[in-house]
Amino acid sequence: MFTDKIEAKDFAKMPQEYKDLLIKVLTIQADSELGGPHLYVESWILNAPTAEDQMMLAKTAAEEIDHHRKFVKVLGELNVDVSDLIKHRREQRMLEIFRDPLVTWADMGCFGTFIDRVGGYHLEDFSDCSYLPVARIIPQILKEERQHIAHGLRILDSLCQTPEGKAEVQKSLNRMYPRCLDMFGVTGSKRSEQYLHWGIKKRTNEQARAQYRAEAQKVIEQFGLQEPDPLKDRRYL
Length: 237
Description:
This protein has 237 residues and is mainly alpha-helical. The chain has eight helices and no strands.
């Protein structure tokens, strides 16, 4: 296992495998940070049911775009230009979960509660990253992500007060949950093991997915919902 800590000035000395892995995962992260805003800014910021919800979504969008900016800056220090990502539309996002529109308010609640929670797991994996410029930006980003998740929970709590709202949430959950599990990547992935070896991440895909599922199940039970079939489509197996 690689245990050294790397500054930007040391990056050029690293093996090509390390360079390729770091650039790939940071590029995906930079793209994903725009995924949420490009889904809900047009659809929900001015259509959310309360002024507080509108304010929270505007704040969330600003913070996610700032997260994108921070990852772009780290990549820029490595002479990697990803400035074109900000021009990409929903259909061009790297991860499938960010390509489908959020049609209902229940979709918005499930996005914040479950998809932002996946994002939190990916960010936590960088918290002790061997590349120090990444590790340094994670604490503040994680703090803000937890607030995004909390807003999603508040939306679900409000919706689940009625049978109709609860049914809408279950419908959204059924559609999103399998994709949430897919977001952790394929089980037994060689690349996942390489990230672990180089200290870029601290968990394998399957370890992170199992921990996420255990946490998500508690939330699902809290609202009296049913966990969708975790093996539906089974893309991650």
